[in-house]
C-alpha cells in the first residue's frame, strides 16, 4: 500500500492511435482566418473516487491512466502489488495501490475500506481483474474438463466481480449514487472464443450485471459491463504462447506465464486480431476499452444501467455468409 509523491501525471503513453480524432475547438465563427485556442477537454471524473481491480497492467492499467487523466482519485486493487505500486508512483499522489486478491472477500472489503478511508467516498468500481485459465489442448475440451481449473477461473472472474459489486454497493448506497463497471469479454456473448471456464465466467459477469443493476437501481447505483474483443496484453499473448507450444496443439506441461511480451509479440498478436476483425483499419488497444469504461463510469451515461457495451468492431453481431 502506498502513495508516492510524484506530481507528473503521465497522459497515456501508448503506441500510435491513428484512428483517434484530435481535439478541436468548435467555437470558431467559421472565418477561415479565425484562430481559436483549443478548448481543454472536459475532465469526466473530476472529484470522483474509483477503484480499478487488476489495475496494475494491461487493460486495467489503461483504465487507471485514463481515470486519473480525467481527474479521478484512483485506487489500484491488484494481486501484483509491486506492479501496482510502481504504476501509482509514476502517476502521482492521486493514485495509490492496495494489494487485493479479488477472489478473497476480506481483501475486497479491505480495498473498499482503504479507498473510503483515504478519500472519504467511493463513486466508481471497475471490476477488471480476470484470468484466462489454461489454453492447452486438454483445457479446451469438455471431455477432459478439470473441476479445479473451472473453480479457480470462476473464483477470480465471477466471484471476484460479485464480491466487488457487494462491497462497492455497500459503500455507495448511503450516498445513493455510484457506477459499477465490470470487464466481461466477447466470450461472454458468443461461444467458441475462449476456454470453457473463461466463457462461463464471462457469461456470468453479464448476468450478474443485469441482476445487480435490477436491485441496485433502487439505491441510485448503475451497474454495467464492457466486453472487449482481443487486446494484445500479457493475458492474450500468454494464451497464444500456450496454444502454440508443442507445435500448435498446446502442451499441458509448458509453463508460459513467465516473460513480459516483447514488442514483436505484441505486434504479431495485433496482426492476428486484425485478421479476425470485422472492422478493418483500427487496431484494438487497451485505451479503446478504457474509453468505454470511462463512458460508463462517468455521468455521461447517467441513465445507462444493466448494459453490456461490446467493444469488438462488430465481431459478435454478424457472420458474413452471403459474401457481403
Ligand atoms: N486481453 C484481451 O484480449 C481481453 C479480451 C476480453 C476481455 N478481457 C478481460 O479484460 C480484463 C483485463 O485483462 P488483461 O488482458 O489486461 O489481462 P492481464 O493479464 O494483462 O492483466 C490482468 C491484471 O489482473 C491482475 N489480477 C489477476 N488475478 C487477480 C486477482 N485474483 N485479484 C486481483 N488482481 C488480479 C493481474 O495482476 C494483472 O494486473 C480481464 O477481466 C480479461 O478477462 C481481456
From TrEMBL:
Residues covered by the Ketoreductase domain: 48-232
Gene3D superfamilies hit by this protein: NAD(P)-binding Rossmann-like Domain (3.40.50.720)
Pfam families documented for this protein: adh_short (PF00106), adh_short_C2 (PF13561)
Keywords: Oxidoreductase
Protein family membership: Belongs to the short-chain dehydrogenases/reductases (SDR) family.
Domain of life assignment: Eukaryota
Descriptive protein name: Sex-determining protein Tasselseed 2
GO molecular function, one term: oxidoreductase activity
Gene for this chain: Ts2
Coiled coil: none
Segments for region (Disordered): 1-38
Record flagged with keyword Oxidoreductase: yes
Amino acid at each position: 500500500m502506498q502513495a508516492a509523491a510524484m506530481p507528473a501525471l503521465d497522459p497515456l503513453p501508448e503506441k500510435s492511435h491513428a484512428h483517434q480524432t484530435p481535439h478541436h475547438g468548435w467555437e470558431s465563427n467559421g472565418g477561415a482566418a479565425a484562430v481559436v485556442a483549443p478548448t481543454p477537454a472536459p475532465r469526466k471524473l473530476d472529484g470522483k473516487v474509483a477503484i480499478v481491480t487488476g489495475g496494475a497492467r494491461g487493460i486495467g492499467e489503461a483504465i487507471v491512466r485514463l481515470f486519473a487523466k480525467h481527474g479521478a482519485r484512483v485506487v489500484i486493487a491488484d494481486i501484483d502489488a509491486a506492479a501496482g505500486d510502481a504504476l501509482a508512483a509514476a502517476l502521482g499522489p492521486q493514485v495509490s495501490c492496495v494489494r487485493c486478491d479479488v477472489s478473497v472477500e476480506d481483501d475486497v472489503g479491505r480495498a473498499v475500506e482503504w479507498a473510503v478511508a483515504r478519500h472519504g467516498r467511493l463513486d466508481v468500481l471497475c471490476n477488471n481483474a480476470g484470468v484466462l485459465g489454461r489454453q492447452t489442448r486438454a483445457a479446451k475440451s469438455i471431455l477432459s474438463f478439470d473441476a479445479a481449473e473451472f473453480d479457480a477461473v470462476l473464483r477470480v472472474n465471477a466471484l471476484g466481480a460479485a464480491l466487488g459489486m457487494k462491497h462497492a454497493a455497500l459503500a455507495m448506497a448511503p450516498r445513493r449514487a455510484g457506477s459499477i463497471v465490470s470487464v466481461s469479454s466477447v466470450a461472454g456473448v458468443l461461444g467458441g472464443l475462449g476456454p470453457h471456464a473463461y466463457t462461463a465466467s464471462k457469461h456470468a459477469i453479464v448476468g450478474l450485471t443485469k441482476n445487480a443493476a435490477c436491485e441496485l437501481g433502487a439505491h441510485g447505483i448503475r451497474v454495467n459491463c464492457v466486453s472487449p474483443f482481443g487486446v494484445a496484453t500479457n493475458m492474450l499473448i500468454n494464451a497464444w504462447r500456450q496454444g502454440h507450444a508443442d507445435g500448435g496443439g498446446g502442451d499441458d506441461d509448458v509453463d508460459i506465464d513467465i516473460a513480459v511480451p516483447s514488442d514483436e509479440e505484441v505486434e504479431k498478436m495485433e496482426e492476428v486480431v486484425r485478421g479476425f476483425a470485422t472492422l478493418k483499419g483500427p487496431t484494438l488497444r487497451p485505451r479503446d476499452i478504457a474509453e468505454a469504461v470511462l463512458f460508463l463510469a462517468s455521468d455521461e451515461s447517467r441513465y445507462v444501467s444493466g448494459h453490456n457495451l461490446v467493444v469488438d468492431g462488430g465481431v459478435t453481431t454478424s457472420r458474413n455468409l452471403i459474401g457481403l
